[in-house]
Amino acid sequence: MPPEHLRFGGGTAETAIHPLVAMYLLIAIVMIFVLPRGKAITPFLLAFFTIPIGQVLVLGGIHFTALRILILAGLARRAIFRRSSSESEGKYPGRFNGVDWAVILWTVSAAIIFCLEFTETPAFIKSMGDLLDNLGGYLVVRFLIPDGEAMRRTFKTLAAICAILGICMINEQISHINVFGLVGGISSAVTVRAGQIRSAGTLGCLYAGVFAGVWIPLFLWLWADGKSRMVACVGLAGATAMVITSNSSTSWLALMGSLIGLAFWRLRKRMRVIRWGLVLGLVALHLVMKAPVWALIARIDLTGSSSGQQRFGLLDMTIRHFSDWWLLGTPEYVNWGWDSWDLCNQFVAVALTGGLLTLIFYIAIFKRSFGAIGTARKLVDGDRGQEWLLWCLGSSLFANVVAHFGINYMAQLIMGFFPLVACISVATFEATQARVRTTEAPTQVQLAPAPGAERTYPPFGEAKQEVPNSPAARGTERFTSWLKA
Q1: In whole angstroms, what is the distance from residue 315 CA to residue 351 CA?
Q2: Domain presence at residue 45
């Protein structure tokens, strides 16, 4: 069992921020306030994923990690400039949609039910901290990614982050030292399992590889788009290094989930048949197997040191103890079996700490996101560039679903998931707007521009005719041809 004092978060009793980290954090906060809205996402994400989570400011017994300070700075940016015409117009593209409401309902439900389950002051403090991390973090990311150009900048920033962490994780394999641990907040010692070093970076060995693996489809989109190929190559190299050096089966599964999603590109118009085929296949396996179909999790071991049996046991006991947790969750899962306190499955973690209602809201995030992507892809049918972007977003989302069955998402990894959800909202909204503009175009009178007039360009998400010899068209065509081979 875990120590009792860690039930409500635990942590250091006094402030622990290295002077270099404090200066770095201050610079990032200043940039969040002074940069244009669409560019402020870069310092926010860069600082968030390169500062160890243990860098913390303790005030009155309340822990303000460097990550929470960044979130508060982002919320302040949103609040201070809300009356500015340039900031408030289009605060959220298309306003709040079904995906946004699913995130809000999940975070609020989780906080309320945790307080009802543990009627203690530390529980209330922890739930408010989690609400700030989850809801506050999502609102900041959603605000700082207002359009397609900010979305592209987000992908480039994440590629740079993967490059930085990838280099540092390779160094761990060579020097056996985590350089981020030298400033405090995490250990500088490396983790070794079955004779293999598991590099950690700032995220930890179980999370770093997953963080990288799920973003690979979007780095491939950057390469195919033709405008940021150098950044895309750097991101792909860094992400691959993170997956390999983490030496974790879940990291490899996240990477495989990304590649499998991309491989179905040719069958994008037949996904309904594929989904039903998958469901019927799982049902058939469940009927013919001696064990339940979810026992297949126990057979997954891609590194020779995985704990698939424990993951299967956790999921199996959760299903068998449904009556114990469905209403308000349960703290009794720690007594269900060996290492059952380790909630290494995000869906299980949401269920056991928030009950069935919270789990439904959480699953709704994926359902609505996949639905929005599918609808948007049909709207831009024929525009290969936009279809490919939406397909890469869906592949990344599918990779997250796969990774959910191997680990629970802590604060930094949840923040790695939120930009994807925000980008899905932006991309699907712009696809809808492109469809509206295309439909209305024949009724509009097109006037020739006056001599010397400034040339205008279509919005990022607008469907447009492909230029056969453009670099973007050639890159997309070569990449999709490679997938078809």
Answers
A1: 11
A2: no
